Amino acid sequence: MELMEDGNLMDRVQILLQRDLGYYEEHHTVLQENLCLGAVGGPFDFPRYASFAAVKLVKWWEEEFFSCFHHPSGLIETRIHTKEELDVKKLPSAEFVEMVQQSAEKLLEHLHTLSQESLDHADLAVLTATLGAAALCKNALWCFNEQLKKDAKSLSLHQASRLMQEMVEALAERLLDLHCRLLALYVLQDADSLNWESQHSFFEGQRGSFTIQMWWFYMQGAREDLWNTVPPKTAQRVLAGMLNESLTILTARYSQAKPSLARSPLIVTDIGNILICVRHLLPSICTSGSELLGLVGPGSNKAARDVHAKCHDLLCTLLIRGCPLATLYKVFRRGADAAPLFLPRPVSPATWFVLVAPKLFPGDPPRGDMHSLNDNTAVAVELSVLCAQPEASWPLLVKVLLMRNYVATTILLRHLLKADIQYQDAVHSSVEGCGGFLCGATAGCWVEGSQLTPSQVLSALVQIIVVICGDPEGGGMRALHVAFSALLQQDGMDWSCLDKRQMWAEQRRPAWLSALVNLIKDCLGPSMASWATSVDNIFQGLQQIGDTISVGVVLMAKLLDDILPADVSPFGGQTLMQLIGAAVYAELVKSGADAPLRLAEEWCGLDTDLFREEVAAVVVAAQERAAELEEDLAEQDSGSEVIEELPQIAEVLVSRLLLTSSGRTSVKIVFKFIQHNLAWLMGELGAQESRTAAPPVHVPAAKPAPHPLLHAMFHIGGSRAFDELLTGAWQLNWVSLLHTELGISKTQMAQQLTRRAEFREPHFLNEHDAKVVAILSTIFGVDPN
Asked: Which of 505, 632, 626 is nearest to 559 (CA)?
């Protein structure tokens, strides 16, 4: 779409919005541009896509801001302006604010028109496009307003930002309402399967209702669509609302239904299908393992609590409606208090969830909070939440890597070390960005669509653990020893890579060692260029970084010193000197100039007493800081031990990683590997429900191939078929359930028994069952009339 780029802003905006509306009227869609994947989500919930008009308007706003204040707003990585552009007379700040407010109002009117069109035609694509446009402009206005607080305190864009925020919230509500109306009016209606009074079995008793199958299919597609179009946090809220509202309908329907004898098995089959479906949808709306298991307090995720409450009601309905009469009589023949069914529910994982996720809970049903779970189960629960999110949760990733004595980290390290592929420096090399709006090549957005090698993943994982363990909250040497036990005990490990003769051999360096060297490189920084004139200058420069070397690297070097075989002699006699020397050599060679190359060769030949004395100051300073940390941690628990007690510790630890470009890239790489190989990792933890769990693909970051459409329609979660209760593939232990504290009141028990066909139609029963019904009616005070 060609537009006039010169002239008054309001004139350009008017033309822009007219053409955008004309494009919609002609094509019945909105022209969109994608945003950089590295910018999507985050604290401000940036959208994945925004309309062409919104992107163009934000660019124009940024240009006007620069012409007003002669510095970028921070929203866009602005190009370097020429002297002639900087000499242009400044735009008055009051005029800038007025133009932005007026153009924002025009955009709001435009978005309102498009949203009304989308609602009139139930066009989800147009509605999500308008939502993305409003979300982008809302963030831009907030950014400009924050800059105005510094540069022009008397002016404000708060009102415009607030109105755009209200538009985002209103559009999200309309999106949720549209999905809920589609679910209630079309997906969840089926006159045939809901004909409870029919004396004929539904589909001759061969399957559950179509309603639940289509509901599952719709929810899968809606989740995929929301994840790929709507801002992540908004997408999660919309999905939570859809799940909650549809479960309200289903819970009321099945708990109040009064089916005939022929239709009674359909209720049991459908409720079983619903619970298994929710088990696979629920992780997407939770933020922690505690929420997933229902171990949450009053102030936690309300949507998750509501879903758990409705699933508990469905479980109670399933139990009372589906339990054979003979079993009910056997348990309650001595009275209503013969089983703990009516006792209050204890603090433990939700019974319904334990029932539908047996692989997660081997052995006896768990009792107590998250701490009562075994290590593999606790990690698997958090993993399932981590990988179901619309955007990565870095604190949760760190928690998964650290918790329960680094169970997940150990599994990953063992696998990646076995790959034995030499490290490729592409992980931290300069790369091109994705080209989306707001893209900066340093954002790490290239990770999203790239093919990662095991070496890249291993290097990223080592960097994360080393940095975290060197944090005051991370655990120090003890934590490193546990986390890297797989590395230190690796059979056949070749430690010659730490010999001084291999200091220059960057291409032959294993990935874990390259990760340590890269952490030293981060400390050298751009000042290395000023050192590359003589060895003496390098010595002086190194003395300045003694206080900046990561404590985790120092501790890791000390750990390696203790296990190196006698035939391996590091540069300068210590592993830390070897790492420093390798980092300096790599930085000298990187420039490619003749003088630094000659200096690099000279540097490699140094291993004299003078050298040791010169570098000793650096090593001593770093080791003193490490010793202070170890002393402070002597009486403390490690990060692995406290991270479940204090989840905010994970946020503190991950903040250190996100301060550097290499840290941000590392967490993206490790998350992508885990996300795309979740089935394998869950299998290693003994918690994979699929019977066809495969090891990681050769290229670990490649997404597994999606299931065919028909498979996705007839299977839940990719592995469990529909109607397992009907086919007998899933056998319930009715007696065990009746002896579980479910908090059912005796009034609820009587009401549900009244709705059973056997209690309403006893004349269809044989003599034995009729007698059982009469006894149970007396015990629970059931009045079939």
From this structure: 626
Cα–Cα distance, 598 to 583 (Å, whole number): 16
pTM above 0.90, yes or no: yes
The DSSP element (H or E) to which 720 belongs, if any, is strand 720-721
Per the structure block, which two tokens stand in for 734? 């009715």
Cα gap 244→303, rounded to integer Å: 7
Alpha helices in 258-360 (DSSP H): 264-281, 289-293, 302-322, 325-332, 351-356
Place of tokens 């990565």: 392
DSSP string, 157-210: -HHHHHHHHHHHHHHHHHHHHHHHHHIIIIIT--TTTT-TT-SS-GGGGTS--H
Chain centroid to Cα 266, Å, comes to 36
Contact 134, 111 (CB under 8 A): yes
Q: Rounded to 5 degrees, what angle do the CA atoms 503, 429, 671 make?
A: 105
Six token digits for residue 642: 């406290």
Smallest CA-to-CA distance from 634 within 477, 484, 509, 480 is with 477
CA end-to-end span of the chain: 71
Note the pLDDT tens digit of each residue in 392-446. Answer: 999 999 999 999 999 999 999 988 888 754 444 444 444 566 778 988 645 567 6
Strands (E), 22-166: 32-34, 49-51
Only one residue has tokens 């996720």, namely 357
What are 621's two structure tokens? 């300073």
46 three-state secondary structure: strand
Q: What confidence category does residue 543 fall into, taking pLDDT thresholds of 50, 70 and 90?
A: confident
Question: Distance (Å, rounded) from C-alpha 120 to C-alpha 113?
Answer: 11
Please count the residues of the chain: 785
For 614-669, what is each residue's pLDDT tens digit?
Answer: 667 777 778 887 887 777 665 666 667 778 878 788 898 898 888 888 899 999 99
pLDDT for residue 603 is more than 70: yes
Which tops the pLDDT comparison, 508 or 701?
508
Mean pLDDT of 232-244: 97
What's the pLDDT band for 610 if we cut at 50, 70, 90?
low
Distance CA 201, CA 603 (A): 85
Residue 344 is given by DSSP the state P
Contact 539, 532 (CB under 8 A): no
Q: Which of 60-64, 236-240, 317-321 has the lowest mean pLDDT?
A: 60-64
**Which secondary structure element, helix H or strand E, spans residue 751, and what is its range?**
helix 746-754
CA pair distance 168, 148, nearest whole angstrom: 23
C-beta atoms surrounding 608 within 10 Å: 10
Distance CA 180, CA 177 (A): 5
User: What is the DSSP secondary-structure string of 648-709?
Assistant: HHHHHHHHHHTTSHHHHHHHHHHHHHHHHTHHHHHHHTT----TT--PPPSSTTSPPPPPPH
User: Model confidence over 677-732: pLDDT tens digits?
Assistant: 898 899 999 887 654 444 554 444 556 666 777 888 889 987 889 999 999 999 99
Contacts of 64 (CB under 8 A, 6+ apart): 9, 91, 96, 99, 100
Cα distance between residue 172 and residue 167, in whole Å: 8
Residue 140 parent element (H or E): helix 124-151
